[in-house]
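ok here's Peptide/nickel transport system substrate-binding protein:
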Amino acid sequence: MPFTQRPARRHLPALLTTVLLGSAALAACSSGGDGGGRPTVDHGITTSVPAPTQEVASLTWNVPAGEPPTLDPAQSGIESVSTITANLCEGLFTLGPDYKPRPALATGVEHPDPLTYVLSLREDATFWNGDPVTPADVLFSVERILDPKLGSSWIGWAANLRDIKATGEHEITVRLKRPDAVVPNFFAMPSFFVVQKKFAETAGPAFGTASGGLMCTGPYKFGAWTQGQDVTVTRNDAWWNTAAPKVKDIRFTFITDPSAQTAALASGDVDGQFSVPLAAEPQLAGKGRLLFGASMAPTFLSVLNSEGALAEPATRRALQALIDYKGILESVYQGTAQPLRALVPPEAWGYAADVYRAEYDKLPEPAQDLDKAKALVEATPAAKEKIVLAYTTAIDEESRIATAIADAAAQVGMTVELRPLTAEQFGAVFIAPTAREGIDLLLSSGYLDFPEPLAYYQFFTTGHFYNFGGYADTGYDAAIGKAMTTEDPVGRAREVAKAQGIMAADLANIPIATQYVRVFYTDRLTGLVPRQTYVNTPWAVSLGGV
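and the structure:
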């Protein structure tokens, strides 16, 4: 049967590819030392660290999501790609520490009417080879992402695009077919990252690969790619921005096994990593900074098979009731996460926070109730059918969560079969339908790219590319559709919150927690504050020597 949520309405995630820092749920603080020269771990939110004062010749940084399939920024919806390319390529704008857009390859934007955006381009920007950035390069970069043959996940921003044209020597104009409140956010995203037209056309299909290379404008230049081993980048000393990096060369490695990651960090073979396994904390004590930042990342279960056991609402309710949320927060995340009542975390309420808060607080706080789960299973034949739960082995915490869910399911009479996926297999789930075959339920940690809840909730509208489970609800679609055309922040928030309530009741997905952004780097380094923006902004620029 189809994944039907309610009789009146028939009918994921950005990687699972956006913040109001200082939410009441998260106390701001900073991490420091213990007074004896040994760094300490603070599970609170880090908002500042000492600025770097020294140049660093080289460092090694691990990418736990594994080796990227490409370095083409058009494919940077995948974290293994974006963590690297965020330091190589730039968009027209970038997000600052406050998650507000700041000029990058554009110096400003005018919005003369609801359908038009006029962007003024920077005149002093050059590619790594010294060639100037032209409107033709910008148009080429945007238009190649709009080509369905390229398969870029960033094509989604242009659902309401009429056209994009060069309207001056240093100006491009974007025109829409109807108002779309989310569009301006994408000017700072890889959807508008600029690559050199001449270089990309010459490289052809090899663009972004180890053999084809890359040509962008960012603070670091592509150096070499030894497949199966590492990617090296070197500082772009001709970068237009005055905030020049202090680290000259960076070597990116691709260790995906959590134990091996810990060993490499503890030994000093690797200088830093995002998403460090929390189990590594004892081994890393005194060896560097383990910092935590406010997050726009939800960890949740999403339905992939709309015709299996989970098509039955009672099965989804039983699954929601059997999860040990408190245990996950305390034992798995060790106090570095917060409970989550809806898919989009409070940190992503970038406007009209009072509207979002009022509706969010109406939703029930998740709590384990094994008796309720068992009763639902006993009364629901479909709930006794096997459910295949997939997760990535590259994230230790998610392996533990998946195991805990399967164990709790067995206690209430459900059969949850675990399907562990490598980092590469897990990434394929979001790209290829064949990779999702045989999977009923997916455990994943997504993130919002910018503080706009609408950007994430639109993924669950009927027929959307990321709506893998086939969720369909006319009321939900109507609310999201109205929000998309509402520029008034309060009015938009009301519509998004309405859709949020509908989906929360239907359990198209089951939110578990929002974990902090976490980063570890050796004590010879400083400057990097953990923020969600590391996937789309040049985070390595802030690093340097103590």
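+1. The mean pLDDT is 90.
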